[in-house]
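Continuing from yesterday's entry. The apo prediction looked reasonable, so today I'm repeating it with fe (ii) ion included to see how the binding region is handled. Same sequence as before; SMILES copied from the compound registry.
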Amino acid sequence: MDIIFGRNKEEHPEPIKAEVQGQFPAWLQGTLLRNGPGMHTIGDTKYNHWFDGLALLHSFTFKNGEVYYRSKYLRSDTYNCNIEANRIVVSEFGTMAYPDPCKNIFAKAFTYLSHTIPEFTDNCLINIMKTGDDFYVTSETNFIRKINPQTLETLEKVDYSKYLAVNLATSHPHYDSAGNVLNMGTSIVEKGRTKYVIFKIPPSVPEKEKKKSCFKHLEVVCSIPSRSLLHPSYYHSFGMTENYIVFVEQPFKLDIVKMATAYFRGVNWASCLSFHKDDKTWFHFVDKKTKKEVSTKFYADALVLFHHINAYEEDGHIVFDIIAYKDNSLYDMFYLRNLVEDFEEKNKLSSRPTCKRFVVPLQYDKDAEVGSNLVRLPSTATAVKEKDGSIYCQPEILCEGIELPRINYDYNGKKYKYVFATGVQWSPVPTKIVKFNTQTKEMLHWGEDHCWPSEPVFVPSPDAKEEDDGVVLTCVVMSDPKQAPFLLILDAKTFKELGRARVDIDMHLDLHGIFIPEKGLKTEME
Ligand SMILES: CC1=C(/C=C/C(C)=C/C=C/C(C)=C/C=O)C(C)(C)CCC1
Ligand SMILES: [Fe+2]
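Holo prediction written out below.
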């Protein structure tokens, strides 16, 4: 298994023509850009966790039925410092490192409770974000890096904390119909003021200010104080309906005192996260127009969530779908020591990913009796009025065993049917990709022996009328090293294979990606 998880991958910065089998639709012109960890050993040092690996970007470019592949390591400051020192000198999620004393750009970044937290990493290995015509790679710290989506070269480093009070920001932003980016971050640095900040980045800057960065025009939509000043919630994504931001304050929390002392104690950031199983999960809904939070207190039982799927409004309710767990065992499974031979047998999740639908009544009869269910939609989800006026929500279970969910993003914030996701059972590694109909609960699968597919990306066809008119792209790495990895294209309606493009290289397993239609790519001349 070391082959897939732990072994360093080579970069292939020059385009490699893939061997195409089957038919790629003529309208599919553009680039699938993906991100994930590719290097876990530097000199004699090795990262502990799969999420620590140095970011390796890769892309598949579709042009007139042909497919070209390339890959390149992100030249982050983290990458450069590590490579120069020939050892790990910058801390990541699961590995605390001690910097090179002579050359240290990762010296202390901020102090809290009179202790020091070293500057966070800019190894942005999780996702890709679009602002206007520009593309950035993202992680969960205050840094993002601009990249050239064609050559995969690394460009400027952006520090969110220069523009707003956040030390962490999600790697899963949303986009509204005007092209604004909406994202959330946490401010842990101001003593006594731990808060979550929702912010908006415009796609372009006013004409007279050309060349100035869109980050200078960033706007705070709303700040939500953390329920606990020393234990803000950890979150990997959030939801967005037409009018509201949906934020789940889960009892999987960061411990700020532990973070402030981690460096001296020689422990990693991951050990500063803990699941408080007896706490509640609080829901927050922020009206994007008024920038105010809905004042009713909505809560649910303790859960752990990484990915929101979609959220929408219906008849005075907010409906939102997430993939939830009963505990935080998922992050523990990705320690490289657990991803060894036979890990599928030995390293089982103690809680299966469950697709849950919460239905939250925003408008309800204020005179309703205590104990009554306020949900007026046909769903088994409930929202029960409590004595103190708060509302206790229990979900409808839509299905089990799916992760890395994607939708047709034209339906984000709207009532929708389809989730495209990877199929996972008790192991963290996907063996299938699935199409799930949230209304009929039907599920279609694609899977083959030795195949480990990645997060499926839906691309709508140019004349799409229905939600699933288009294709699904996924990158398949092989657990059998004798077989070459490939890009798979499925008809999104039938889930039947249209074709595959094989690239005979050692490809890395990745995390997330986006499809950039050809018209969205600036030409080299611009
Ligand atoms: C470096 C760093 C962090 C990194 C978190 C990462 C890298 C999370 C990756 C999550 C993924 C890949 C989830 C997939 O579902 C924290 C804990 C935010 C806090 C402090 C510094
Ligand atoms: Fe994610």
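Comparison notes:
- The chain has one domain: 12-520.
- The radius of gyration is 22 Å.
Will overlay with the apo model tomorrow.
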